[in-house]
Amino acid sequence: MDTPLEQKTDEELVRLVQRKNETAFGVVMSRYQPKLLRYGRKFLSDTAPIEDVVQEVFIKAYQNIQSFDTARPFSPWIYRIAHNMFANALRARDRLPFITVDLDMFSAHTAYEIDPAGDEERGQTRALVERGLASLSPLYREVLVLYYIEQLSYQEITEVLHVPIGTVGIRLRRAREALKKYV
Amino acid sequence: MSEEHNIQKKVLDKIRAGSVGMRSHAYFVARASLIGITAGLVLIFSLFVLSYVFFSIRESGTHLLLTFGAHGVATFAALFPWAFFILCLLLLFFLGEMIRRHTSAYRLSLIRLFGGILSGSIALSALIMLTPLHSSFLSAADHDRLPFLKSWYDQIHRSHTDRGIYRGTVVTVATSSFTIAHNETDPDSDEGTWTVEPPTNFNIRALAVGEKVYVAGTAAAGTIRAFGIRVVPPRLK
Question: What gap in Å lies between CA A171 and CA A163, rounded to an integer?
Fold first, then answer.
């Protein structure tokens, strides 16, 4: 007997979607919609509705689903699409330049997950993040949201932001320092 | 209707109505192939330009200026083919960006990625220098048989007497000076005959008639007061 769709993994569902199973895509959407709405609201730090942007994320994901390799985890892939859409929305809203140079990306050192303080520190910092997020620049805001709120690993954040793992570590450290100054 | 169901319904309605379609697997294969081919072409052209830069420096003898002290280094910098070099860097940067955007190379730091591309390109260009590619193009350009890039190769023989650089063949050697003349059999455009007064540390007795020399100095009334002289190695004659 087939496993119900709700009990399948993301990757199993996507395999079905690639075979034009729309119901499976509905299950994928129901799994990721709350996460993407939360990610978008925190990243954009905006009170304006972002449902339209999330809807576009799902449409883009569906259009490009055949490019997804089901041997790899699905979560960073859809977060990557969301990141691009949210970043575009942010650029349009704040009139930010399309291309920015991030000197942290020149970093050659390796960041080791996880923070030395571990889960307890992660919980405490998460509370700080909830309070002080709006005061940070989008660059730092996003990495904090992905790590502390969306609970992604350094490796997954690398896949979402398309930056080296060392850059993820540097951004997180700087974001935490900035956060402590504000809160 | 809840916000959650509203988004899902809107998306599924668009899919079912056919206004949102799924791109085929073949589309992504074709796109990846196109990107791969473009990257390959950019790499080949970059390597061609970079190896041309090295070849033109070696073939024109400009690299000998680096042995003429600070004045020589400054002249070398002035004669360096910056336009080609910058074109090459831009191409390699474009290539790096393509690789970073379309492969997993974003996991590397920019220093590692671009450093690797640059050092790899220099190594490959050095290998190209070992082949007769540029020599045959230069020869074809000299004989007006090169249908493309002729102006690139013509510059290699361009005269730099305006910058105090003279090339010629030794025709006479005296005790404290020697005379050079442009060799009509080579395609260099350094026309004229000059008497060269070498710097004090130059061993004029080691010089032989018929040798090709590269002289840097200031000229007045047919006499060059040289600050640097190098006999051109036979390979470059």
Answer: 10
Domain end residue (candidates: B98, B127, B155): B155
Q: What is the mean pLDDT of chain A?
A: 85
Reported confidence tier of residue B192, pLDDT bands at 50, 70, 90: confident
Q: What is the ipTM of this complex?
A: 0.81
Cβ contact (<8 Å) for A54 and B16? Answer: no
Q: Is the pLDDT of residue A124 over 90?
A: no
| Positive/negative CA dihedral, B178, B184, B189, B192 | positive
Q: Which two tokens stand for residue B169?
A: 């063949």
Q: Which DSSP symbol is given to A148?
A: I
pLDDT of the residue at B130: 92
Asked if the model's pLDDT at residue B235 lies above 60, the reply is no
- Please state, as a whole number, how many other Cβ atoms lie within 10 Å of the Cβ of residue A85: 21
Residue A22: count other Cβ atoms within 10 Å of its Cβ: 13
Please calculate the CA angle A120-A132-B2 and round it to the nearest 5 degrees: 90
Q: Does A106 touch chain B (CB under 8 A)?
A: yes
Asked if B32 and B144 sit in the same domain, the reply is yes
Q: Stretch A44-48: mean pLDDT, rounded?
A: 69
From A108, A114, A102, select the one nearest A166 (Cα to Cα).
A108
- Asked if A51 and B15 come within 8 Å (Cβ–Cβ), the reply is no
What CATH number did the domain enclosing A114 receive?
A: 1.10.10.10
A19 touches chain B (CB under 8 A): no
Out of B137, B155, B173, a domain closes at B155
Quick check: A166 and B109 CB within 8 A? yes
What pTM was estimated for this model as a whole? 0.79
The answer to whether the CB atoms of B23 and A108 lie below 8 A apart is no
Instruction: Write out the residue range of the structural domain in which residue B181 sits.
Output: 159-236
Kindly provide the b/e burial profile for residues B33-44, where b requires at least 16 CB atoms within 10 angstroms of the residue's own CB.
eeeeeebeebbe
Answer with the one of A67, A94, A121 that is the final residue of a domain: A94
Same-domain pairing of A9 and A86: yes
Lowest mean pLDDT among A99-113, B42-56, B125-139: A99-113
- CB proximity list for B170: less than 8 A, separation 6 or greater: B178, B179, B180, B207, B208, B209, B210, B211, B212, B213
Cα A18 to the chain's mean position, in Å? 23
